[in-house]
Amino acid sequence: MKIDRRKIVNRCGYDQNECMLLAKRLAACPDDTLISELKQISVWNYGKCELGLWVDVLDRLDAILEHAVTKVGRWMLRLDLPENASLVDDVVTILEFTGHLIEHSIYRYLYGSWNHILALFGSENMDILLAVLGLAYNFR
């Protein structure tokens, strides 16, 4: 996500313990189980928190998004290749989780994966486009 860690402040007036525990648990997850852990979070029950708590998790998710939006050939994104159906599912999961997180966080301006999110608008997959629009809506 490339957050400038100098901009992170700790001035949240909310109890962030549940969010902090979840962020630490997800940050400690191995790469092969991170997406399955994210899929289990369909409803946000962790309260409001600072986006800065999630830097380590968001950096890992940003790396997956970067891989997914790499161009193959002249116009096609890697996730649009027929053999990458699992990558599409992973990206949709990431976008849905990020939407929940953004909706329930403060200091949203710290989110730094917009270059990948905007690249996803070039996808041919309607599930991806719907998930991107859902995430963008949470920044309202």
TrEMBL record:
This is E3 ubiquitin-protein ligase HUWE1.
